[in-house]
Amino acid sequence: MAQMHILFTIISMDIKMSEMLQYSFMQNAFIAGVVIAILASVSGTFVVLRRYSMISETLAHSALVGVAVGLVAGLNPLWVAVIVALLSSWLIEYLRSSFALYSDAVLAILLSGSLAIAVIIVSLGGAFNNSLFSYLFGSILSVSSGDVMMIVLVGGVALALLLMFSKELYFIAYDEEVAQTSGIKVKALNFLLVSVVAIIIALSVRVVGSLLIGALMVIPSVAALQFKKGFKSTTLLALFFAVVSVLFGITLSYEFSLPSGATIVLCVLFIFIISLILNNKK
Amino acid sequence: MKFHLPIFEVKNLNFNVAKENILNNISFDILQGEYIGIIGPNGGGKTTLIRMLLGLEKPTSGEIKIYGKRLKDFRRWDKIGYVPQRASHVDSSFPATVQDIVNMGRTSKRAIFSGMSEHDHEVVRDAMIKMDVLDLAQKIVGTLSGGQRQRVMCARALASSPEILILDEPNTGVDTRSQNRFYALLRSLNKEEGITIVFITHDVGVIVDDIARLFTINQKATICNNPKQTLSCEDMSTLYGTDAHLVHNHKHGH
Lengths: 282, 254
Known about the structure:
By secondary structure, chain A is mostly helical. Helices cover 83% and strands 0% of the residues of chain A. The longest helix of chain A is centred in the N-terminal third of the chain and has 26 residues, at 24-49. Chain B has a single domain, classed as P-loop containing nucleotide triphosphate hydrolases (Rossmann fold, 3-Layer(aba) Sandwich), CATH 3.40.50.300. Helix content of chain B is 30%, strand content 24%. Chain B has helices at 46-53, 98-104, 118-130, 146-159, 176-193, 204-207, 227-230, 233-240; strands spanning 6-17, 20-31, 35-39, 61-66, 69-70, 80-83, 164-168, 196-200, 213-218, 220-224. In chain B, the strands form 2 sheets. A 6-stranded mixed beta sheet of chain B has the order 6-7-8-3-9-10, with helices on both faces. A 4-stranded antiparallel beta sheet of chain B has the order 2-1-4-5, covered by helices on one side. In chain B, helix 2 (98-104) packs parallel to helix 4. The relative contact order of chain B is 0.18. The A-B interface holds A 49, 163-165, 167-168, 170-171, 174-175, 177-184, 224-225, 228-231, 233-234 and B 54-56, 75-78, 80-82, 84, 93-97, 99-101, 103-105, 107-108, 110, 112-113, 138, 140, 142-143, 160.
């Protein structure tokens, strides 16, 4: 009887899934979500290893400035978000490397500064509406085919750059100075890493939201680190956790009419807690 | 062994921080194949000097040349293997096996997008054998003892096939038995493979038989061309500002 019940549940879930995937906005959400999960988790591993996790939060707030400018000026908010996040990432890296300022202090200053600018722009432009709300918390309904195309193409280039220099970035994450003394262009690669992270974050604000993308970038990597594996295994585990969280998150979001970003983040948090419990038992 | 080609040429080097003179008018050459010991009290400028040789700090004035080129024009950093002071203090949660760490030594020799070649694997394996860490290859580096980590860091430096190896007190916090094995390895790298070694240490007594010259650094540099004979207890006491004496290690049985 119990087996029949399980079978019935699986069949009904299967029907719901196929129903859900008939909608083009859900197809867009799944494609964009999975691509973002891959991008965020792979770049997130480097960010976490550099002990630079707060950069994702700061760049997400800078991306919000871009969204605000885009909404007020009638431009594509995603494109403007990419440009503003990129400029912000260069400023962060410049301040960090040139003035020996404390990295976390630089991030805190730019985070609050960006948020203040975004709020002022939006209130002056009278654009404080649902559209901005969707960029704050993520909305699967708002992902258009054009957005998917942009996320896949620009995100693909960002991922290719990351993979191209992954061995150098890994060495830098391990020991920046030793990497420098072995001839690796540390300064240029640090700029590359923050640029790629900025692009990925700006691309993600539509699906996950600017207030929550940091979690998708950092938590899968921290969960994967609990398993104490080598670099490749850790990156692959982080990628798996992020993709599973996005797939479950979007499905639950559709099923229970919840905001997609928050649901995805709760899924990844659940995986993180399970990882902690499993590895504390070892 | 006769030394001819200068690897490092340092002239009138000064380094000030907030008007405080850390290094004062230092000049020396380091020749190919030499084993140089550097000693001096903490805060005397040893690490600063090494960091300037590696381009990690800019001198206030003076000139440094590597292989005849000024630091800013030098490109062949892969010729230099560096093991910093904190080498054995690894972040225990860093996701790296011993193999991952030693592979890093080949990074600047590999092209973009390229995996490890057969040759790279051979060099890495050879470095791990020399440093006696081959059986630890799949262990997570954060789980190793201080002595094992020290050997892994040196294996990484060796995997870059360096012509010069610069070590900044890599044996801090490592037990005596591991240290003695380590000194023997350095001796063989210098004598048998001709690798130039620059070694900052406080344990000059145990390497005094191996080194060609000893640099004592305490703001100024004093070069001892025959460290075994010229370095007296008086010199050591002056250098360290306390009653000091040189302990010779009888590892060779003489």
